[in-house]
Amino acid sequence: MLRHLIKTMRLRQWTKNAFVFAALIFDGQLFIAEPFIRTLEGTVLFCLLSSCVYILNDIKDVKQDRLHPVKKNRPIASGKLPIPTASAALGILLVIIFPLAYLLDPVFCALLAGYFVMNMAYSFWLKHIPMLDVMIIAAGFVLRVAAGVSLITVERFSPWLYVVTTLLALYIGFGKRRAELSLMNIGANSTRKVLDGYTIPFLDQLITIVSSTTVIAYSLYTFLAPKVAENHYMMLTIPFVMYGIFRYLYLIQVKNEGGAPEELVLTDRPLQMSILLCGVMVLLVLYVFAR
Q1: pTM for this prediction
Q2: Is the sign of the CA dihedral 140, 43, 22, 51 positive or negative?
Q3: Of residues 170, 175, 242, 165, the one with CA closest to residue 204
């Protein structure tokens, strides 16, 4: 039973919560103990709360998931994890998370609560509205970044990163919808109603718009952000960002993958290399060249 509960919590998707570290990294405080520990604690709480959202979604969508070729194997949809057990685990986690979040920082707790309320609205209503469904997902990533900002005293964190985060999340979200639509083909409307509002050509247009503006926004960040623009070395990271965006586009349009973006991050070597090299270059620029 515990194994099925852990599977429902989707630990592999905790990679998304790395965005909580954005403020710490881009503000140049990664190697300072106190803000690092606070950010790590906040990330753990965000991971647990995101698992609560996954449990809630699986309980809410159990009937639709049983019709899906892949989701039907999830523990709740398959009956391996009873709904009462999942509901009890959800309640226990929430009772633990929010008091600890408040003790860590009241603003962080408020952002966490906002994230959970927004996702409840998403699960019960907003997920069925085309485009708004992906925008809510993007808002969740922005809240992760904002949560990281609330945990430290920022000195040079640029608002441009909120813009880049929003656009990147929209890009991934629309790519995920395209992959789902491609997977389900004609039967898509039987498992996810929102797919009725999309077509592959329409999604391709949205992906083109968002991917190009993501590159532009990140490029603007590299030479407009405070304390980053002084030596312009951050512009050296642009090729890695561009390759990562192009690689994901290749995977969703040529390979028909992308239904689970977190799986691509964990399995696709070229994408992993672009992320790794970009991360190394960011660290060099912010922590070596800037000194």
Answers
A1: 0.89
A2: negative
A3: 175
